[in-house]
Amino acid sequence: MDIKDNLSKMFALRTGHRLFCFECKDMTYKNKTIRRHRRGNWWTRFYHEGKQYSIYGRTQLDCYGKLKIIVDRLEQESIIAKAEQYLQKLNHPRHQIVTQAVAEPPQAKFTLIQWFDEWLASCKAGTVRLQSQKNYRYAFQKMKSLHDTPLTEITNLTLSKVISSIVCSKQTHDNIRSILKQMFAVAHNNKLIDNNPTLNLPKPNGTPKKKRQALTPEQEQRFIETALTDTKYEPLLICLLQGVRKGEMLAIRPNDLDFDRNTLRIDESYDEQNPQDLQTKNADSNRTMPMFELTRKLLTKYKDHEPTQRIYEKHTSAKMYKALRELQELADLPKFCIHELRHTFITRCHEKKIDEMITQRWVGHQVGSRMTKAVYTHISHNAELEYIEQMNAKTS
Q1: DSSP-derived secondary structure for 328-363
Q2: Cα 327 from chain centroid?
Q3: What would the pLDDT profile of 132-182 be if each residue is shown by its tens digit?
Q4: Which one, of 106, 129, 107, lies nearest residue 187 by Cα?
Q5: Cα separation, 136 vs 181, whole angstroms
Q6: What are the CA-CA distances from residue 277 to residues 108, 135, 269, 349 (Å)?
Q7: Is the pLDDT of residue 367 over 70?
Q8: Are residues 248 and 379 in the same domain?
Q9: What is the Rg, in whole angstroms, of the alpha carbon atoms belonging to the chain?
Q10: Are residues 94 and 122 located together in one domain of the fold?
Q11: Do the domain assignments include residue 345?
Q12: 345 and 237 Cβ atoms separated by less than 8 Å
């Protein structure tokens, strides 16, 4: 047994956000190596005739089986294509050669829960955060009555009845419908089912999701003045001043702060339940935004802080929510959640006529997304009165 095998039982090498364990032995097929993805599934990537192929599998053997089928098929197709080209070049009278049809791999028969696990491991692992995958599993548990039903026996009527019988919020209903639509679309594209039962799936009635609000300018001012009285309110104040998400705020480190250029870099998001998963919500969430004046004054004291240590590592979610409730009482504010501070920031940007593309870059939304206005913008009463005066001035 060599040194590597001895060390593999005790140590793992951490590089950036990826963990590589010596115990994970790679498998190869025709010089194509299968490696373990940092999200837990297995994958490989190779090029064939200028085209890139990426293969994912829930297990190492699963990925190996898919790789073997695809590589063998590509090689056989290449041989046939080269033979046909050669015969055509020679003007052979019988240039159409008879080839043996490539046997299609037998299609696996999945139950609904088996296909959910396969879909989640193959299509979502490595692309969404671990917490999002947990949310998928939580929503899908509502479909427990169909978990053991074969995928090919599920119809539109079956899904409609089960979804309508589920007692939950409208948001959970929407999540279940979204998961089912994605799952069955992939199954239909891979010819596991002949028809997609989620087409024209009706929307069931449910408890409407609580509509989030933004603070008015007066409420925002009271919030800021009260928050400046105690450092325990500082993380909440950063969420309001910069419009960042709670996880993004908790992940800020001193090396993300550039006091020369007055910028704040956001490229990580901290989740207490998955502390090793520092991936942001999506690619657009990775951004560099301006550090506004009050933020700079609050964060200047962290210049000498350990560069790679989170500056708010002592502020847990429980402590933050407790501080938020105290602050709301002291400032005589209605109850709201931390994320509504982000709504307030985006609303102020809109009221101050800041270009929407700039706002989207600051808050980490995709440029051109309709969500910024449709979901996050709340017009205050005072701003509405100004618009009314402008309209009255035109008609007077």
Answers
A1: HHHTT-----THHHHHHHHHHHHHTT--HHHHHHHH
A2: 31
A3: 888 888 888 988 999 999 999 999 888 888 888 888 777 788 888 889 999
A4: 107
A5: 13
A6: 32, 15, 8, 31
A7: yes
A8: yes
A9: 28
A10: no
A11: yes
A12: no
140, 175 in Cβ contact below 8 A? Answer: no
Helix (H) or strand (E) holding 13: strand 12-15
> 18-21 and 42-48 as β-strands: parallel, antiparallel, unpaired?
unpaired
Cβ-in-10-Å burial (0-12, 13-18, 19+) of 166 comes to: middle
Domain containing 311 equals 217-389
Q: What is the CATH number of the domain that holds 290?
A: 1.10.443.10
| One domain for residues 349 and 277 | yes
Give, rounded to a whole angstrom, the gap between the first and last alpha carbons of the chain: 92
Here the tokens at position 73 are 């098929």
Q: Give CA–CA dist 175/179, Å, rounded.
A: 6
| 3-state helix vs strand vs coil in the chain, percent to 5 | 50, 10, 40
List beta partners, residue 188: none
Task: Tell me the three state secondary structure of residue 127.
Answer: coil
